[in-house]
Amino acid sequence: MRWKTTALLALAVLAVGCSSNDKKEPQPAELTKFTAEVKLKKQWSRSIGDGQGKTYNLLTPALYGEHIYAADVEGLVVAMDRETGKVVWKQDLDVPVSGGVGVGYGLVLVGTLTGEVLALDVESGEQVWRTRVSSEVLASPAVNGDIVLVQTQDDRLIALNIDDGSQRWSYESSPAVLTLRGTGAPLLTNQLAIAGLSSGKVVALDTSRGLPVWEQRVAVPQGRSELERIVDIDGGLLLSGGTLYVATYQGRAAALELQSGRILWQRDASTYSGIAQGYGSIYLSLADGSVEAIDERSTTALWRNEELTRRQLSGPSVFSSYVAVGDFEGYLHLLSQIDGRFVSRIRIDSAGLRSRPVVEGDWLYAYGNDGKLMALTIEPND
């Protein structure tokens, strides 16, 4: 029942609501014309099965060495050369994948709607181990060479032994009554396991035993209805040096000191899709479809682009001198980091672009809802 509630709620919020009266709902902003300053050049593209599927999944490809790994909702996992798109191996798991892809220390990791975590060999795709956890896994597992960290839909953090998937420890937290469908991917360092929860809190645990090191509330639920009180941390966390950046839905964006959880700064914000950082700025894809840049030291808003309102944006990624975001019609937009103006645009997948773009050096990888994975580079306009 919880699965149905969160799924329906996410669809309601992301579709900008459905009214029972005759009042016409605001429509997504029409795309405006602009003079492109750079060209996004397609290097290769490949279809990854059924892509995100009909459920609100956020399957995101992962880079590891010279390869890129992607999964679809039906359990197809594909390893490809990241510069040519040539398939290295395929593995059909025949289970509904909802969390992935995590990769590192020789493993490719995915979570399922049936509450399992599967580890595949990074070189061959062969299954290394498979284990069951408490509930569905909606975000990529993390790995640090000792444990695999999984965050489940019921706000549990579970540490699995990297060698065989056996449970090392489990941390329980009471989830909110209503949540958006999804969880942010947890983070791992050698000493800390860090996660954002549906309650608007961030928790850091000792990796060896799962004991709390610190807990910090970023957003306080407000309002009379449970819908108004949703403060999920769904967009994931961003770690840069000793600073942890986090943003919530209907709450705040904040910078925390990694070792203590102390709040360095905070400001009002609402996002379900995450945060990016570059050139001394923090970038947010806000819930209303705006893209905002914030000075990471003074918390001053540097610019705000409101020309993509209600277009259900993906999380942002920093790509060269630009900020890249996708939208519900499958367009990838490049915005200038200086002032937020549009500099380029390309359509990836007509079914939409929900997954955050993945960037490595001069390459960007966009994964569309229907399964089209495209590798792009930047060229100056002639």
Question: Outline of this structure?
Answer:
This protein is mainly β and 382 residues long. It has one helix at residues 2-14, and strands at 38-47, 62-64, 67-71, 76-81, 87-92, 97-104, 107-112, 116-121, 127-132, 142-143, 147-151, 157-161, 167-171, 187-188, 192-196, 201-206, 212-217, 238-240, 243-247, 251-257, 263-269, 275-278, 281-285, 291-295, 301-305, 317-319, 322-326, 331-336, 342-347, 358-360, 363-367, 372-380.
| Assembly category | single chain
CATH topology of the domain at 59-172: Lipocalin
Give the uncertain stretches in residue-range form: 1-21
Overall geometry: globular
Rg for CA atoms? 20 Å
Number of helices: 1
Overall mean pLDDT: 90
CATH architecture of the domain at 59-172: Beta Barrel
Question: In order across it, which strands form the biggest sheet?
Answer: 1-32-31-30
**DSSP strand tally:** 32
Relative helix content: under 10%
Helices and strands: which structural class? mainly beta
In the CATH hierarchy, what is the class of the domain at 59-172?
Answer: Mainly Beta
- How far apart are the first and last residues' alpha carbons, in Å? 55 Å
| Beta-strand residue fraction | 35-45%
* Sheet having the most strands: 4 strands, antiparallel
Family: Belongs to the BamB family.
Protein name: Outer membrane protein assembly factor BamB
Subunit structure: Part of the Bam complex.
Organism: Stutzerimonas kirkiae
What does this structure look like?
- Belongs to the BamB family.
- It is found in: Cell outer membrane.
- InterPro entries: BamB, PQQ_b-propeller_rpt, PQQ_rpt_dom, Quinoprotein_ADH-like_sf, WD40/YVTN_repeat-like_dom_sf.
- It comes from Stutzerimonas kirkiae.
- The chain has one helix at residues 2-14, and strands spanning 38-47, 62-64, 67-71, 76-81, 87-92, 97-104, 107-112, 116-121, 127-132, 142-143, 147-151, 157-161, 167-171, 187-188, 192-196, 201-206, 212-217, 238-240, 243-247, 251-257, 263-269, 275-278, 281-285, 291-295, 301-305, 317-319, 322-326, 331-336, 342-347, 358-360, 363-367, 372-380.
- The chain is mainly beta and 382 residues long.
- It has a domain at 59-172: Lipocalin, CATH 2.40.128.630.
- It has a four-stranded antiparallel beta sheet, with no helix packed on it. Strands 2-3-4-5 form a four-stranded antiparallel beta sheet, with no helix packed on it.
- A hairpin with a 5-residue loop joins strand 28 (331-336) and strand 29 (342-347).
- The protein is globular.
- Mean pLDDT is 90; it is low at 1-21.
